[in-house]
Fold this protein.
Amino acid sequence: DAGITQSPRYKITETGRQVTLMCHQTWSHSYMFWYRQDLGHGLRLIYYSAAADITDKGEVPDGYVVSRSKTENFPLTLESATRSQTSVYFCASTPTSGGAVEQYFGPGTRLTVT
Amino acid sequence: DQQVKQNSPSLSVQEGRISILNCDYTNSMFDYFLWYKKYPAEGPTFLISISSIKDKNEDGRFTVFLNKSAKHLSLHIVPSQPGDSAVYFCAAKRYGGSQGNLIFGKGTKLSVKP
């Protein structure tokens, strides 16, 4: 499928477990992003990546780890999940050509930590 | 410290009338502003953007106005349709910021009644 996909779409995990959310894009966009959406907070940036092997922290990075070994994949790992990480997670990407600033979002992963 | 503010959590409009969604910002160092639309259980989709050097941008039924002196932008939807019912996010990009690195408001839920 063309575009940006996320898996799983829904996940329930227990406190203390490690969980990885996957993000895959077929556009070869250089930049990729992870956001979380919580009621009353809108979209907050967790981590972003400018290219393969280049990542940087966003507004709320604590408790999360990212990697980007290939341009098309940008997984987000919660090393030891906590209830406060219950949220909807969105992956996004944007090209660097043409001065584009708009981001293209995946469908989201709803994560519940019990 | 919220740099992009959407002070109205919700807005209800009659079909065929104008919808006006508002957004205020505090940082003068933003060079692009964007509006996203989000349906339930889907990722945000890019709607329209405006450069800080312009004061208006139009795309079909959607027009964005930028008032730099007031640090205020608005999205006008004319005429409003029931399919426009969604959450609308305002976003801003900083001058010299990482490509596509956006700051989002908390969103305004628009309901268009038939």
Observations:
- Chain B touches chain A at residues 6, 32, 34, 36, 41-46, 49, 89, 91, 93, 98-107 (CB under 8 Å).
- The radius of gyration of chain B is 13 Å.
